[in-house]
Amino acid sequence: MDDFEANQEQEKVYIFDTTLRDAEQTPGAALGIEEKLEIAKHLAKLNVDVIEAGFPISSPGDFDAVQRIANEVEGPEICGLSRVVEKDITAAWKAIEDAPRARIHTFVGTSPIHMGRITRTTPEDTLRMAVDAVAYAKSLCTKHPDATVEFSPMDAGRTEPAFLYKIVEATIAAGATVVNIPETVGWTVPAEFGNLIAGIRKHVPNIDDAIISIHCHNDLGLAVANSLEAIQQGARQVECTINGLGERAGNTSLEEVVMAIRTRRDYFKGYYTDINAKEIVPISRRVSRTMGIAVQPNKAIVGANAFAHSSGIHQDGIIKSRVTFEIIDPKEIGWKESQLILSPRSGRNALKHRLSELGYEVPPEQLDKVYERFLKVADKKKAVHDADLEAIMSDEIRAVPSVFELDYIQVVSGTKISPTTTVGVKTEDGVVENASTGDGPVDAAFKAIGQIVNIQLNLIDYQIRSVTEGEDAIGEVSLKVQDNGHIITGTGASTDIIEASAKAYIHAVNKLIQLRTER
Ligand code: KIV
Ligand code: ZN
User: Fold this and answer.
1) Which terminus of the chain is more solvent-facing, meaning fewer CB atoms within 10 Å of its CB: N or C?
2) What is the pLDDT of residue 1?
3) Is any atom of ligand 1 closer than 6 Å to the C-beta of 152?
4) Alpha carbon of 82 to those of 53, 56, 95, 192: distances in Å?
């Protein structure tokens, strides 16, 4: 313990992660069950206090995902979301009841706009529905003494304060031990939101029987600032997401709020979280890859430029002393210096060891496949960076079942001929070959694959980026397709961008097949 810690009264701020619920609602971010499970296990490594694993009534797939996470993920409390409706609460409870620590989170809109236009209920009816829901949730928890009931008055930022105090008091009396104050539409500014929290502490007589939580959206770019001000005013749980993903402009970014508390603990009066900071960068990358949503380069804490110094004065300062222009040591949050560690001569063990340092435990039955792929990349690139290994892993070890797999691809293209791409795709009937022409070789590949898998994808976005620098870099393709109002993301990686594109297309097809069966 340092002098600062020794002189301060420490108070914990609980971290409630809603990446698998609120962020998963982001268009294109839909995940399959295995993908959710993988992220949940990584959230447990990050040591969040609560994982909001989904909204069990919303679909059979969501129910199964929440149940699997409740049964298989150890450490954090597992939470299921529900409206203030009996069948929702029953489904949420069934999904989480086997978790060692379980939480039902029930919500209803309490602003005049939400009561008038969504539930079409009076304040009195809304209050009764909320109290009945909390009491019902509490009654289900009787066989699970550690289970928690959390209540959220949705759109609290635009709710009449007097009504907010009343509903918070009534739901605590009915058994809620966490009251979450959602800034659903990102309307308030920090001083205003802080006053709201201070008002709740002042005007709700039984407030000490519950933890005050906050859940801020980022429509005005103020989610983190609002959350931090709310903590100063007494909130002790922050609802947040990895990379700040979430509905519209997103939610409070977990990494920003955690690192603000940690870095400025002189200002935040000794508050702390139990987050394992070294996992921040690895989980940011994992979520970005799995959801297919790139992190903006200038994003605080986890953006590619967050610790890049380009001006001469800054570079000179950093060389003299890191603290001249860096307020966080990048190693503290899991940034690893890029290392040229592996080459075509590296053996299986060296690969396995490095992957394990990067957080990937490769089962023995998959190591051969990963090693084979590594050798192909190493032969072309000679030096394999960590970023290459991460691209290989996300390409080879898919959480989505491979109904189809790319076997080979050949391209004939030029300025005076119509590009033709031939693909061989592994199917349950063996390898099927097909060729097609197109506007370019990538378009031709997509057409050829579409005819084999017999699914025509409606492509709405296509992006390619280089994983590392240099002509021989691995290219990573991320594309989005639309299916029945749902947006699905596919990714693929290769030193050949046409092959990477074909893989991304097939990944999207496999994901679509999986999501259709889970819906
Ligand atoms: O933004 C919101 O109000 C929510 C609630 C369900 C807590 O996500
Ligand atoms: Zn939300």
Assistant:
1) N
2) 43
3) yes
4) 12, 8, 11, 28
Domains annotated on the chain, with CATH? 11-291 (3.20.20.70), 308-396 (no CATH), 405-518 (3.30.160.270)
Nearest residue (by CA) to ligand 1, atom 8, is: 22
The pLDDT tens digits for 275-286 are 999 999 999 999
Q: Is there an atom of ligand 1 within 6 Å of 245 CB?
A: no
Higher pLDDT, 378 or 19: 19
Q: What's residue 337's pLDDT?
A: 64
Please give the angle made by the CA atoms of 418, 423 and 427, to the nearest 5 degrees: 150
Q: Are 344 and 375 within 8 A, CB to CB?
A: yes
Give 280 Cα–ligand 2 centroid separation in angstroms. 21
Quote the pTM value: 0.87
Helix H or strand E segment including 430: strand 430-437
Ligand nearest to C-alpha 88? 1
238 beta partners: 15, 214
At how many degrees (to 10) do helices 497-518 and 441-453 cross? 30
Residue of the CA atom closest to atom 6 of ligand 1: 107
Region 187-195 average pLDDT: 98
**What φ, ψ does residue 459 adopt, rounded to 5°?**
-75, 125
Crossing angle of helices 386-396 and 348-357, rounded to 10°? 90
For ligand 1, atom 5, name the residue with the nearest CA: 154
Lowest mean per-residue pLDDT among 163-172, 393-402, 498-507: 393-402
Q: Look at ligand 1, atom 3, and give the residue with the nearest C-alpha.
A: 184
